[in-house]
Amino acid sequence: MNRKAVKEDLDSRIFDTLNIILLVIVTVVILVPLWNVIISSFSSGRALAEGGFIFWSKEFSLENYRAVFQDDSIWQSFFISVSKTTIGVITHVFFCAMVGYGLSKRYIRGRKLYVAMGVITMFFSGGMIPTYLLIKSLGLLNSFWVYIIPALFSYYDVVILMNFFRNVPDSLDESAKIDGAGDWLIFLKIFIPLSMPAMATIALFNGVGQWNDFMTTKLYITDQALYPLQMKLYEIIVQSQTQSMQNIGGSAVIETTTKGVQLATIVITTLPIVVMYPILQRYFISGMMLGAVKE
What we know:
The protein contains 13 helices and no strands. The chain is an all-alpha fold and 295 residues long. Helix 4 (73-103) runs antiparallel to helix 10. The protein starts with a helix and ends in a 5-residue tail after the last helix.
């Protein structure tokens, strides 16, 4: 082996080692704070009162989670969150896919006008007050559908799907039409399966947005039966903080208990998203395989 080959092999090993070290550092930076939040949420108020970083709970306790789940209505809020996220993601992705499929066809009349109108909505909006008046005029105040209908359309997602549909070979579309397939059948049987990578990505981001949505409830919902999990946990934290302010003589313990409740709510709200990521990743990889089409 000549000197040049030895040098290249040494450089390659150094590069791989640096990559491994960088990966370990990034992993530690991400996992250590997450681990601290999880362990702290299972710590007692006395342990949290000591402050500092908690790598392992000195005094294990479930009181923080009992404080969250002692309200029976939290299960109703969890059902609302799951329902609005599931229905919202399905309807949003399907609706945007339909619009993107139509706008991807260059022979559609008025296509440029529709595209221009969509681009304008990406930069300008009516504002909070006109939007509230519109929601009120549509009768969506204190309605479950206020979580679904206003979130049906996003032109940014339409642009992503429209560009993805353009990459589908025209030969697939033409051969399906020769076999007698209509636009709906072509859209459902050809374009939807081939666009799974883009649709999985949009579903992931929209699902996270739906799950974490807080302002929709704050602005348009006063019926507590329609409160999602985010709003319910917000009320629990506010109540816990109010109790700590009213407490006399034991403020340190109550304050750290409030901190524990906050950490418990972080774990509860984050867990479903963490569970959903691997599931969507599986469909994402499957969709990439389906999308590997050549002319």
